[in-house]
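Appendix B. Chain record.
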Amino acid sequence: MSIIANPARGFTLIELLVVMVIAAVMLSIAVANVAPDSRALLRAEAERLATGFRQAQDEALLTGVTLGWQGDPAGYRFVRRARGGRWHPLEEGVAEGGGRRLPAPVQILAVEVGGVNVEPGGLVVLPPTASQPPVRVVLEAQGVRAGVEIAGTAKVVFMNGW
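C-alpha cells predicted for this chain:
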C-alpha cells in the first residue's frame, strides 16, 4: 500500500490579507453611507422649518386666527392664540404643531424678528395679515449654518460657503 502525502490544507497568508483588505473596504463604505451627514440633516431641517412657516402663514391668512412660533436650541413648536389671549400648541393642521425636537447635531442658534433678537422660548407672532416684520431663524450643525428667512414667503439661505 502506498501512502500519499496530503498537501497542506488552509489559506495562504496572501489570501488572508486579500480577504481582510476587501472586508475593510466594504466596511468603510458601509460606515460612510450609514453615518448621518450633518449638512444633509441641516438642509432637511431648514427646509422642514421653512415649510412649517409657509403652512402657518397660509393657515393664519385663511382662518383669520393669530398663530405663533416658539423655539429653543433643541426644537420648536407652532401655537394658536385662543380666546383670552392664551397660547396653545396646535394639535393638527400646521406641520409639527405639537412640537419638533431637532435631531443632533442640529440646533437653533438665533431668532430675530425685524432685526431684534428673540430670547430662547420667546414667541414669534404670525398675524393673520399679509404684512409682518421679517423673521430669521438660524440653524447650526457642526459649524455649518442655515438661515430660514420669512419675509412674505419662507426661504432657506445657507451660510459658511455652503
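Further analysis of this model is presented in Appendix C.
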